[in-house]
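sanity check both lines:
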Amino acid sequence: MIRFEQRLPYQPPWEWQQFRSHFALRAVTGLEVLEADCYSRSYSLDGHAGWLRVTPLLDQNALQLQALVASTSLQAKLIERVRRMFDLDSDPIAIARHLAKDELLAPLVQRNPGLRLPVAFDPFEQAVRAIIGQQVTVKAAVTLTRRLVERIGAPLEVKPDTIVSHLFPTAQALAEADLAGIGMPGKRVQCLQHFAARIADGSLKLSLENGSDALIERLCALPGIGPWTAQYIALRAFGEADAFPASDLGLLKAPVWGPEGIDARRLQARAEAWRPWRAYAAAHLWQFHTGN
């Protein structure tokens, strides 16, 4: 195993507090550790386990990545994943300028001009978490995910400096696991394990190689996965800038729409003006609604 460090620069503005708040709600014990000024987690890349820690260097407009990798050949791929995870390659000024043209979004953009898209380290992990999160609170989804990690996640053999003990379950382990008593409805368990089995046998690819619309279509063809889940996976698993889960309750009830909110059909129509940055518009609405 090789330990290395890398400085990851970004174009400001970028706010550590946005990411810290995001992880504070969603970090899974055993898999992730959030501290005041850093975030750590286990990971698996190309079948090799490791761990990483990210610390903001706010006075340098950069993040400091510390990681343990199986070989130097994995370093570039790991850096790419972390840059995507913390949305370090977007142009916040261009995105803010476009979204500020909307009179409802303009005050939100002015309040948070550097708002980014927190993205999962691993697309499969995020897809699983999105399926688990259907029709439950974020807190409940985190509890269910922690149970999965504890029950079928492999122990992390390479010991990190922080309390990270397990890897996220593989697709095959999840497809074959006995999930009785895990706390999810039977149909959702079936949906989750069918999805995992398709990933494990290679008949479903989690990729944007043919565009996000093709991925969303493939996901929606699976039993138990609808447009909200598919769009959310595109947004959180890949950082797809124009993904937009129009039926999301947090978007429909955002205070900008007034006490009555808005329905999904009207929101979808209104969001056309936000292309190609609808995911960032969603991030602003979520931030205004919940603070995360």
The chain has 13 helices and five strands. The CA atoms of residues 57 and 63 lie 5 Å apart.
